[in-house]
Amino acid sequence: MSQLRKDPIVGRWTIIATERARRPAAFVDPLSTTTDQKHCPYCQDIASPGVYESQGVKVINSSSPILDESKPFELRGHGLYDVCHSYGVHEIVLETPTHTANMADLPPEQINAVMQTYALRMQTHRKNPFVEYILAYKNYGVAAGSRNIGHARSQIMTVPVLPMRVLDKISGSKKYFDYHERCLFCDMVTQELKSMERVVTQNEDFVVITPFASRFPFETWILPKGHHCDFVEGIKGHEDSLAAIMKDLLLRFKMGLNDPAYNYMIQTSPVKKASSYKDDYHWHIEVMPRLTRVAGFERGTGFYICPIPPEMSASFLREVEIHA
Amino acid sequence: MSQLRKDPIVGRWTIIATERARRPAAFVDPLSTTTDQKHCPYCQDIASPGVYESQGVKVINSSSPILDESKPFELRGHGLYDVCHSYGVHEIVLETPTHTANMADLPPEQINAVMQTYALRMQTHRKNPFVEYILAYKNYGVAAGSRNIGHARSQIMTVPVLPMRVLDKISGSKKYFDYHERCLFCDMVTQELKSMERVVTQNEDFVVITPFASRFPFETWILPKGHHCDFVEGIKGHEDSLAAIMKDLLLRFKMGLNDPAYNYMIQTSPVKKASSYKDDYHWHIEVMPRLTRVAGFERGTGFYICPIPPEMSASFLREVEIHA
To answer: Is B226 on the interface with A (CB under 8 A)?
Structure first.
């Protein structure tokens, strides 16, 4: 069974795949596959029963899960190390019954249905007392970590521990709140809308910015204008405008940057203590194209070099003419 | 002038390049160049004066520096953000006068000279009161972030802030020390040498392991068996065995993994407070091939999926037959 292992120095968790481990030689020249409709495994999956289905969106369990919910979560020591079996669920969200690769090309109603699916699955998984965090994210394209390309999909993982960067974000925004008694993200939205130099696009409920200390070229964040710590509650009533701004942004990537690989991650408050983050955390979505492999030492230091100012990225994306 | 910008949420610093900013279109299809000896800019640089030179190793200032030491370090606000000009030096270490690409192919004496050069440059840069941390690292190959391939070289950067991951490592090992009154890394060396399942290779002074919670396939750490927080002092008297184990490891990568791209980062204690880390921090080198681009959401969460158990990586690397 796969394991969750904790780095004893910095406290970072890693899922160590065992069952689906690839043989060492497989890393030397990793293959990726673009599937046509006839051979698409997801076009076949969409026809068989899943764990949830609505409006053309279907959720299935991963066929090669790296998480397993069948045994209860139990942390144990291994000398000075911490380890447990990789408790959790790993679901694939098939975003459309048609063989469309990029979410950018889906109609807004379909993107809306995907976002609602994330919220509904999160609501279900929250009931599990072992679940500390629910990750909903997308890898589009080889450079973004996808190995089979051709059918729009995203992933949901429930984990029994708090991912390190989520914890960092929460403590950082709490520190700001404790000092200012205001939400850091709300202040950021105000400042960005005033200066406009890092704003890519906006609608009544959301603004897309390139963050001030961007790590990567064209890194963007979708920030809700209204305050809410939690994705599930926060999107209520704003589903249409979230879908619209997501499509708008992904089309800018596609048209302006030649259909790049990209990732997005829903950043929401942890499950158990959602109420404690009510005032100081603010849900958002990080969306970033994968265009560069710059400065590998970033992996070891967390110190980034962004080869283009975010103001230039924002201005470039603002000027992209989008048409579906 | 380029800037250092701080993410207000997690406190991570990014260097935002401005002068050497690439135009947005340049990211769509980034080019990398393999240079033959005749056109190698580094073979030309090696003949002109540098900032330091010894035993065939030459240090030059980067021709497109992203750091600048000419103005004093001064942090200022920008609304709720923190920013300063990108204070520091950015040096290129040309590791050999010959046009050899991979450090794995250099004689051990030459690798020894490179390591001694890092130590000497660190000693010099430490005298600058604005310098908080000195990064010495290598990007080998396109996947590791190098854009001009062909001449072995590495980089030294001095920065006026503590990189986030360095801070995390230091606080983590301090916590362990405060509780156990023992160095976490020393305990790790003991445990790894006892179990041997994650040991790749060792000599009298160093052991190479694949870390228990490895983030990447074939991630390795070179750990000194003796305790020292600081690279500069710590390598004294162990230069030969460091060079030998580095060559041994890099040859295993080259032979076993088909000359992969890789990075290494010297992890040493911060400059100013080196004495406070005397007991609880332990210098080491992270060395990792860049074989996969898995799970892009790691960027946003710090939650990793390693598709091969480190025990399997270690056993594979152990069995590689190395010959120069």
So the answer is: no
